[in-house]
Fold this sequence. Notes:
- The protein is mainly α.
- It has a single domain, classed as Sodium/glucose cotransporter (Up-down Bundle), CATH 1.20.1730.
- It has 19 helices and no strands.
- The protein is globular, with a radius of gyration of 22 Å.
- The two termini are 19 Å apart.
- The model has no long low-confidence stretch (mean pLDDT 85).
Amino acid sequence: MAGRGYDLGLAIASYEWMAAVTLVVVGLFFLPRFLRAGIYTIPEYLEYRYGVPARTLMSVYMMLAYVFVALATVLYSGALALNAIFDLHIVLSIWLIGLLAGAYTIYGGLRAVVWSDLIQGIALLLGGLLVTLLALDRIGGVAEFLRLGADKLHTVLPADHPEMPWVAVFIGGLWIPNLFYWGLNQFITQRTLAARSLRDGQRGILLAAALKLLIPFIIVFPGIMAAQLFAEEITQGDQAYPILIRELLPAGLSGIMFAALFGAVMSTLDSLLNSAATIFTMDLYSRHFRRDADSRRQIVVGRITTAVLVVAGCLWAPMVARTGSVFTYIQMFWGFISPGIVAVFVFGLLWKRVPLRAAVGAMLLGIPVYGGLLWLLPTIAFLHHMAITFLVLGVWIAVYSLLAPDREIREMPAPADFDLTPSRGVTWAGALIVAATVVLYVVFR
C-alpha cells in the first residue's frame, strides 16, 4: 500500500478507511450468523445454506486464489524488501521467506498465528510511526509535507479516474472486495471464528476497524513522502517503503524496523497458509476423500498441504514482477471470484428462497463475466468491473430464485454451549468508527 501511496497518493487510503466501515458491518451483521452456525470455515456456511456443491466450489476457488494471488504477492513483497535493504536476490529471498513461514506454520498452528500477528502487528505500527516521523523531519515538517504533497493528499478523485473513481469508492465496486476480504475470507475470519464468544469476536473486529483509520498515516503517508525525498532512486512504487527504511533509519534501528517488516510478512504468510490448509482439510479432504479422518490424520494432511502450498507459491511469486504494482495485482485478480462469492452470501443471508443452482451458477458465471468486462471495457476502473459483475450476478440469482425458488427452508445449526450475547455498546462503537471515517474524508477530500 505504501507503493500505491507513492504512485497514486492518499486516495489509496480508501482501501483502509472504507474497510473500517466494512468491518463494522461484518461485526454487527455477518459475525453473529457465522458464530451461531458454529462453523470452522467460511465455505462451510455455504453447505448449510445451499448444499455441498456450493461449499466445494468456494473452497476450490479460495485454494487457487491463495496460491496465485495471496501467497505469491506476499512472498514477492517480502523478497522485494530484502532486495532493497540487503541486495539479496529476489528468487533466493522468496524461497527463504517461504520456507521459514512454512516451517513456522506447520509446527505452530493457529495459536502461533494469532500471537505472532499481535506481537508483529504492534512492532510494525510502532516502526511505521517512527519511519513517518523521521521522513517528516527530513522533509522539513508537516507544513512543508502538506505543501509539497498537495496534489497527492486528496481522497476523492474524479468520477472518470482509471483506478479510484469516487463513485466506485463510496457507492460502487470498492464494497465488493472489502466485503469479501474482511468478511468472507478465511484468511481474515479464522481469528473471529475461533472467538470464545460473540462478545469477544465483536470487540476484536471493532478494534481492528479503529486501527484501520490509523494505518494510512503510517503506511500511505510514508509512500507519499518517499516521492518527495527519493523519487530519483525509486524505479517502481513497491520499492518506496524499503528505501525509506534504508535511507532514514540508523543501522541499529533499520535492523529493528526490518525485523518488524519481515515479521509482518511472516505473520501474513502463516495466516494465509493456516487458512488455506484449514480449508483444504475441512472443506475438501474430510468432506470428499476421507470422511472418517480423525483429528490426528487431519493435522497430518494440513501440514502436507502447507508444504505443497509453500512450494507452489514460491514457484509462482516471481511472476508477480511482470504485473507492475503488487497491490493492484491483488485487487484486480480477486475480482474474478469476489463478486460471485459476495453475491451468493448477501442473497443467501437476506433471502431464504435462493436455491443451490442459483448460487453455484453465480459463482461459475463470475469468472467469465468479470474477464469479459476486462477485455471489452479495458479503460474503466477495475472496481467498476467488479460492480457490474456483481449486478449481473445479482440479477441472475434474483431471476432464477423467482422462477425456481428453493422449497426447503434450511435451518442453521446452533451450538448450545456458545455464548451469543453481543458486546455491550457495540452499536455505538460502530457508529463512532463510521463517524470518524466521514470526518477523515471531509478533511482530506
